[in-house]
Amino acid sequence: MNERVAPPSTGAAHTPAQAAQPQTGTVRLTAAQALVRYLAAQRVAAEDGSGRTEPLFGGVFAIFGHGNVAGMGEALYQHRHELPTFRAHNEQAMAHSAIAYAKAHMRRRMMAVTTSIGPGATNLVTAAALAHVNRLPVLLLPGDIFVSRAPDPVLQQVEDFHDGGISANDAFKPVSRYFDRIMHPAQLLTALPRALRVLTDAALCGPVTLALPQDVQAAAYDYPVDFFMPRLVTFHTPAPVESEIDAVLGTLRAAQRPMIVAGGGVLYSGATEALHAFAHAHGIPVAETQAGKSALAWDDPLNAGAMGVTGSPAANALARDADCVLAVGTRLQDFTTGSNSLFTQAQVIGINANAFDGLKHGALVVEADAKRALETLGAKLEGWRAAADWSERARSLAAQWRDTVSRLTNAPQHEVGQGSTLPYDADVIGAVQRSAANSPANDIVVCAAGTLPAELHKLWRAGRPGAYHVEYGYSCMGYEIAGGLGAKLAHPEREVIVMVGDGSYLMMNSELATSVMLGAKMVVVVLDNRGYGCINRLQQACGGAPFNNLFEDCVQGPAGAPQIDFAAHARALGTHAEHVANVGELEAAMQRARAADRTYVIVIDTDPARTTDEGGWWWEVAVPEVSQRGAVREARAKYEAQIAARRRHDGTT
């Protein structure tokens, strides 16, 4: 039987007034049935502000097997119309898709995933870590061993020699914001509300794991009927505390050269308009992290571009001279701070819903939602502005950088991809963006690992908030195609363009088939540099010999390195696909891809050595203290000089 399901973002809509009145009595359900029924009952206000409501959970990705097919499988079948189930091909990939769906919805809608025990469950651990690092909600429902232990040990069970209560699912504990093992059906009455609070709390947000022993899934219990009544979920965002606001006002008013570092929290809190208003009212330049890119329009006069190791020369020059940095909704990872070397001279003010992140870099912390904090600070700072020459310098540097981006992404065609000259990432980015001339704001670009995130961070012109979807908190190879699928399910009306290197493509590509099956059309651009080009360059920058990264530098059998036909492979998974010879052909292929009826894959050979010279900053990668290679010893000397320079700036010894 073939069933068609509506896209998860177009679920049945209701107004809050239609919510049913509380009911009394009980209903006998299995634990699995109760869990699914509870998830299906959760509602959220529609993002269009119409007053309608939508399902909080857009669906459940499932790969059935030993440990979830009987219990969860039967329950999901019963609720397949109000909570659609999507079949995937890899557990890690389907969790990536679910995480991307939540990211594309700015954490206001989400998905669950269910797996078997054993390898099905542990395949989710990488995705759980990704969601944890990126502060993104996903509900993980791995199957687990029998609570009764009657058939112990079961197929795929991981036994611990010292603790009989441990299963493979304990691996989720360090990468979950909330973990529970449901040992009795009644536990759901407390575990599910707790899980929901974590998933919808700006400070706690991250992955929730509910391990589901297979005998408990099938066990019945008399649940209160009221537990399953439709509920309108509200999202918890902390308001700024007056004492914390007052504590930073003096620092801000005294600043002559302030700047803002906008992180993902700006987008998730819906603070883009507040950010624009605050920056322009006070003449403060803005730089964007990977998660925060698109928080401010790319052509805004005060947008200095990307920040940090993959940053623009404009943003990094301003950061080096700023006397105050407002870190808004960012966890200040090393790529943003240049391994804590970039703005050591500045007083940092951390505005973050989570104090753990706000306190970093020795910051004065305002533990609050970004939108509410910026609005409160803006009202109290009325009339104050940064030094006029600082604001003017920021506008000038930002304009110069926009001109440079235009030059880099629009190189003359005769210089790109002709003869022996291969294009590099900037050439491909330019071609992709030119192909959207009629509706540039409609595109969502998706990426995750390798060279591309650096080039996209610098060069992609995001048309509107959320148009830039790059997972760089965990920088997980293999996220790209699965993430693109999640973004498309979240926004079926928009063009989702996945940009992926050949290395990441080979790691995880099976959700191309899922995208075809679901009718979730994406455009996938594969940049083939014949290996791990990014790490090959890093290896040599650290003095190492080219080794085990590009195919040509790997151990090979008599047949040599594989000649991979990515287009043929993609066609075998059901997509349209073609290989293009140069950037001109790429632009033409992009037009065919945009007009296509299903996922379309375009492959282009690129230069593994070349990157954009402009911008960037030091990134600390430890170089061996001793080596027989002179190049390593030279790299070590440079490394030690950078460490010494950082110590001089931050005052450490």
TrEMBL record:
Keywords, alphabetical: Hydrolase, Thiamine pyrophosphate
Span of domain Thiamine pyrophosphate enzyme central: 245-377
Domain Thiamine pyrophosphate enzyme TPP-binding: residue ranges: 449-604
Biased composition (Low complexity): 10-24
Keyword field contains Hydrolase: yes
InterPro entries from the UniProt entry: DHS-like_NAD/FAD-binding_dom, Myo_inos_IolD, THDP-binding, Thiamin_PyroP_enz_cen_dom, Thiamin_PyroP_enz_TPP-bd_dom, TPP-bd_CS, TPP_enz, TPP_enzyme_TPP-bd
Molecular-function annotations in GO: 3D-(3,5/4)-trihydroxycyclohexane-1,2-dione hydrolase activity
Top-level EC class as recorded in UniProt: hydrolase
Domain of life: Bacteria
Domain (Thiamine pyrophosphate enzyme N-terminal TPP-binding): residue spans on this chain: 61-156
Region (Disordered) residue spans: 1-24
EC identifiers of the protein: 3.7.1.22
Coiled coil (residue ranges): none
Family recorded in the similarity comment: Belongs to the TPP enzyme family.
Protein name (Swiss-Prot/TrEMBL): 3D-(3,5/4)-trihydroxycyclohexane-1,2-dione acylhydrolase (Decyclizing)
Species of origin: Paraburkholderia kururiensis
